[in-house]
Amino acid sequence: MDLTLKIWRQKNKDDKGGMETFQISDVSPDSSFLEMLDLLNEDLVNKGEVPVAFDHDCREGICGMCSLYINGEAHGPDRAVTTCQLHMRKFKDGDTIFVEPWRAKAFPVIKDLVVDRGAFDRIMEAGGFVSVNTSGNTQDANALPIPKVDADNAFDAATCIGCGACVATCKNASAMLFVSAKVSQLALLPQGQVEAKRRAIHMVEQMDHEGFGNCTNTGACEVECPKGISLDNIARMNREYLSAAIVSED
Amino acid sequence: MTKLDSKIPEGPIADKWTKHKNDINVVNPANKRLIDVIVVGTGLAGGAAAASLAELGYNVKAFCFQDSPRRAHSIAAQGGINAAKNYQNDGDSTYRLFYDTVKGGDYRAREANVYRLAEVSANIIDQCVAQGVPFARDYGGLLDNRSFGGVLVSRTFYAKGQTGQQLLLGAYSAMARQIGKGKITMYNRHEMLDVVKVDGKARGIIARDLVTGEIERHSAHAVVICSGGYGNVFFLSTNAMGSNATAAWKIHKKGAFFANPCYTQIHPTCIPRSGDHQSKLTLMSESLRNDGRIWVPKNKEDVEAIRAGKLKPTQIKEEDRDYYLERRYPAFGNLVPRDVASRAAKERCDAGYGVNKTGEAVYLDFASAFVRYGTEKAHVEGIENPSKEEIIKLGQGVIEAKYGNLFQMYEKIVDENPYETPMMIYPAVHYTMGGVWVDYNLMTTIPGCYCLGEANFSDHGANRLGASALMQGLADGYFVIPYTIGDYLANDIRTGPISNDSTEFIEAEKEVKDRLEKFINNNGTHSVDHFHKRLGKVMWDKVGMARNEQGLKEAIKEIRQIREEFWRDVRVPGELNELNPELEKAGRVADFLELGELFAMDALERTESCGGHFREESQTEEGEALRDDVNFAYVAAWEYKGDPKDEEVHKEHLEFKDIELKQRSYK
Ligand SMILES: Cc1cc2nc3c(=O)[nH]c(=O)nc-3n(C[C@H](O)[C@H](O)[C@H](O)COP(=O)(O)OP(=O)(O)OC[C@H]3O[C@@H](n4cnc5c(N)ncnc54)[C@H](O)[C@@H]3O)c2cc1C
Ligand code: SF4
Ligand code: FES
């Protein structure tokens, strides 16, 4: 395949940045989107130019490191995949493809297509955990049976990879889907119940503090989420949060 | 010559760990606040260690090269984690897990370490559940188990095909809690580029801030390396793109011995290669071998027809299929250990029975599992006289619930629906059993420098059993290092903060800077990847699934030559003081080019076959790996002497007191 790429280039966080056009040929339809960018970069290195920086690591849709806005969609045109799982067979020979970084106030661009998602970590640090220390005498794992539906729902929420596509997609740049997934996971399990309300309050507070926008229920995030994290989580979190806000003594 | 002291405690194997914990020094809580510990890596090993050490009260500085600790490569582990809980009442026990692991490792692991691993395994599951890790459960609300290769019990705990993700998010949340409390200072997007020794002890590291390019000196009373495995020395592997050996290799060059570098695991169930564009290979979890049957056609004509696209695998009759693992290993069947399964696939493909265009693929078929589960489900749901289609549909639903994400991953990559046609798989480099040599306390041969997780050599001998790496990483991080590090640090309570202004730090920093500048100013003609791919090809062709003397000697020569060319001709664009992925890769590949040579030297020296290390010269009449216990029942620990070719080998002799040394058999 031969393609025209229009890619966001930005030298560093202070640079203004802009789109740059590249031509690329002999792309295998079986290659992944990132392998296509590898090819471009190999070309650039051979020409003595600076390659395009982008984040990636596992290349199998699980680490949450890759993050591209492709033709106006987070993780590109395919559904339920991350950019690293997107294959070039989804495009046509001769296509022009636009590639941009996540855009959100809380995710500043570091270079080219690489953004800083540290805000997500800080939200987790505010309460995304169960307060239990490591010890060799925790109670037996089977001492507390958990209904299978709760365990399964908790698992589904826990599959969020922290990629940030939901934020990039949302017109308000809200992080509700991400935050609610963690709040839900832990609220559904007896181990996490104890701190559920406190957790919801602290994580939401931190989210607001980081400059993410409000959730106006457009549902765009659910559509673009590569892991199919459901809007139900947001409803569940709102319940935790509202009831928590009423009784909170913190 | 430094003598290797494994520091194995005295006494019966079942009492060693308890006795050791009672005997060693502890640091009192008030004094822990005066002590700094650096943890490099935030995977299961590093994440668990950092969180646990911080909970104890130490000041922890943790480092990872990704943008968040949650993205360490452990996140990608799929199938599960072992623990001797015996919830299934199928006869599991600490001893059985210990025995299976030593046998699975082809009797090349240290008994005492493996026993301890089995002993703490049950605690791991309790700990993870307490953190909110959503393991799979049955309708009674209790934890579910599956089986992995090389064992006859069901002891593997799992969270669909995302077990590593769930365990790592558990460790990450424990870290997040300590970061929030200020007990861990987290350095994301930082790469350790050297260890600093003061008076012979590890007292800090030199790291590069990958965003600003700044070189930083970090001091501490002890350094814990948890940087993962070195499978990417093969270029193509199931490891993440960034997985690398640099941290381990740097401590090696400063005095930490490197053990058994040639022990590599080639995983039997990976998606086959499709072309030169490929940047990595994708694992299809071993758990699939619980339900999938592996086969190739019996007749060459069918193979030809399939390759030509004239025949579909589903059209081949049952009697014309060769379920070669079931045929050769009736007792374990499709669940033989990985090394055995990989070699058997290679044997069939080398004989001309490979089922894709490259001739390097075999089938993994779920058709009979669909029927088996579908029938059961129909029963449970009270469907009378279900049609064959209904049964298959029900069965597919069960399989989807178990492995849905893996089937989806397969379909996205291969563009075929594995519910309708068997998967194609082929072995790929996956895990490295070799690594930094450590004693029973997980300390390397550098005092104060520890090594945990896949980066060390300790528990898996010459072959790792499935679902045991996650177990080891978490055992090391949650339950071993928190005790053993205290024994060493007890001597440091009056030391006070370590200065990072000493000549040792300044010199180490300069060395790092000089090397980075050399890359940038080299102005060669080829990219880093160009050299990495060449190295990978030599490794795969000559130091891969089957090795022989001539090939290994050639490999050593060729790797040396590629290394020499690399330093002369590599081109690294961009600048030092900015985010520069090419520069990061250059440093990593430079280290792989040294490690690769040692790897081949180690493989050459070990003329026996054992586990994942298969020397063609040493096999039984049936083509199974043939060990030589008289001459090779030892750990080869290599000491760096200025150049890979001058490395000197030290031998730690392995004693088997609790398990009888036997030729492995899975028949
Ligand atoms: C696809 C796949 C599936 C697997 N499935 C299973 C399974 O089902 N069950 C099982 O038991 N095992 C499985 N394994 C093996 C297992 O996942 C790994 O062995 C294990 O997770 C390694 O953990 P670790 O903590 O040692 O290292 P990693 O998780 O690899 O972490 C390494 C850490 O070190 C950091 N790091 C490395 N170098 C530096 C440096 N120089 N400076 C700073 N930081 C650095 C990285 O940023 C990272 O945080 C699988 C492996 C793969 C590849
Ligand atoms: S909710 Fe979905 S889109 Fe948002 S961070 Fe998690 S996985 Fe990514
Ligand atoms: S690179 Fe890991 S999710 Fe895409």
Write up this protein.
The complex is a heterodimer of chains A (250) and B (667). Chain A is α+β, with helices and mostly antiparallel strands. Chain A has two domains: 3-111, Beta-grasp domain (Ubiquitin-like (UB roll)); 118-249, Alpha-helical ferredoxin (Fumarate Reductase Iron-sulfur Protein, Chain B, domain 2, Orthogonal Bundle). Helices cover 36% and strands 11% of the residues of chain A. Chain A is built from nine helices and seven strands; from the N terminus they run ββαβββββαααααααα. Chain A has helices at 33-46, 118-125, 148-158, 165-169, 176-188, 190-193, 196-209, 220-224, 232-247; strands at residues 3-9, 18-24, 69-70, 73-74, 96-100, 109-111, 114-115. Chain A is elongated, with a radius of gyration of 20 Å. Chain B contains 18 helices and 19 strands. In chain B, the strands form five sheets. Chain B has a five-stranded parallel beta sheet with strand order 5-2-1-9-17, sandwiched between helices. Chain B folds into three domains: 16-263 and 433-492, 3-Layer(bba) Sandwich (FAD/NAD(P)-binding domain), CATH 3.50.50.60; 268-427, no CATH class; 508-629, Methane Monooxygenase Hydroxylase, Chain G, domain 1. The longest helix of chain B has 27 residues, at 388-414. The radius of gyration of chain B is 25 Å and the shape is globular. Chain B has 667 residues and is α+β, with helices and mostly antiparallel strands. The complex binds flavin-adenine dinucleotide (FAD), iron/sulfur cluster (SF4) and FE2/S2 (inorganic) cluster (FES). Flavin-adenine dinucleotide is lined by residues 40-46, 63-66, 72-74, 76-81, 163-164, 190-192, 226-229, 238-239, 243-244, 246-247, 283, 285, 430-431, 453-455, 467-470, 473 of chain B.
